[in-house]
Amino acid sequence: MTTTQTGATLAACAIAITIMAVYLWKWWKGGRAIKDLFAMVQGFINGALATICAGGLAGWLAGCTRQVAGGVGGKTVTGTTGADSGTAIASGSLGQLTPEGGVVVVVLFVLLIVSYKTASKDDKGRLIGFCIAGAILCVTAGVAGALDGLPALVNSLGLSGSNMLGGNA
Of 26, 19, 42, which is closest to residue 133 (Cα–Cα)? Predict the structure, then answer.
């Protein structure tokens, strides 16, 4: 589903892509350890899932992230180039969470917090940077379309867990 309004501007997307590019460049130049990708993937998935949280703290934080990135990015681009980059990108939605999927998202966010608390300084940056990038990019039509199976996966994992706990597995 694509519309013309979104909380993600071109400038906000530029910030998200820049964050990802910087960390991926460091990873590439630093030996390309697969374990270092885990923090990036974990952060991005949590940021993506925050975009489908209808209300709640995660949804609110994702919206605030896009708003701040759009403002900062817009001022940076305009201040650097004189061009206006505040144009909204066509939006998309990853979908909706079921109650069971919501439980999975909460578990993933708790794991994100635990991972952050125990992470090295570099991994903390990767977690937060990619979480920000996920919250920005996953409301654009292109990225949401590419990841449209993510909510179904989360919802089915939650349903499977609920069925197992309820003795229906």
Answer: 19
